[in-house]
Amino acid sequence: MSEATTLDQLGSALNLEPETAALPEPKIDSLGRAYATGRRKNAIARVWIKPGPGKITVNGSDVNVYFARPTLQMILRQPLEAAGRRDQYDVICTVTGGGLSGQAGAVRHGLSRALTHYEPELRPLLKRHGFLTRDPRVVERKKYGKAKARRSFQFSKR
C-alpha cells in the first residue's frame, strides 16, 4: 500500500467521509417560546420570543412607551433586523437594574441569545455582528481618598 500524502488521500484510503458539524437542537418550551437572559452594565433582561406579528413588550408596556428614545428602540431591534425576522416574532421581556441605555443593551443581548435558541442557524450571523458578546464594561467603584473612582479632590496650596 502506498503512503498517503494528504489528509484527503488518507481519508479516502480509510473510506472516511468528512463530518459536518451538526447544529444544536432548538431550545423551545412547551408553550412554543424560547428564553434567554441578557446582561449589560447593571441591567438584567429576561427575554421570551414566540412566533407572532412582531409585538415587543417590555415590563408590560409597549417598547415605544418604555424606551421613548429612537436610539434605544434601534438598539433593541438590531438583532431582529440583522436576522431578517422583524415581523416574525413577538418579544416579551422583563428588565431590572441599571439605566435605560443599559437596559436596552441587555434586551438586545437577551434577544440575540433567544433567537439562537429558537433558530440555531442564526448564530454565525448574530455572532458576526457582535450581538452575542456580553459587554463586560461596568462602572468602576469609588476608592477612598478620591472624589469619584479616579478623580482627586481639588488641590489648594493655602
Compact description:
The protein has 158 residues and is of the alpha+beta class. The protein contains five helices and five strands. A five-stranded mixed β-sheet has the order 1-2-5-3-4.
Termini separation (Å)? 93 Å
CATH class of the domain at 31-126: Alpha Beta
The major β-sheet equals: 5 strands, mixed
The Rg value, from CA coordinates, equals 23 Å
For the record, the CATH architecture of the domain at 31-126 stands as 2-Layer Sandwich
Unreliable sequence segments: none
Mean pLDDT: 90
| Number of helical regions | 5
Strand order, main sheet: write it out.
1-2-5-3-4
- The dominant shape is flat
**How large a portion of the residues is in β-strands, by DSSP E?**
15-25%
How would you spell out the order of helices and strands? HEEEEHHEHH
Compute the number of strand runs.
5
| Structural class label | alpha+beta
Q: Which fold name corresponds to the CATH topology of the domain at 31-126?
A: Ribosomal Protein S5, domain 2
Could you estimate the helical fraction of the residues in percent? 25-40%
How is this structure best described in words?
A 5-stranded mixed sheet has the order 1-2-5-3-4. Helix 3 (70-83) packs parallel to helix 4. The protein has helices spanning 7-13, 63-66, 70-83, 100-118, 123-129; strands at residues 34-40, 43-51, 56-58, 61-62, 89-96. The mean pLDDT is 90. It has a domain at 31-126: Ribosomal Protein S5, domain 2, CATH 3.30.230. A hairpin with a 2-residue loop joins strand 3 and strand 4. The chain has 158 residues and is of the alpha+beta class. Helix content is 32%, strand content 18%.
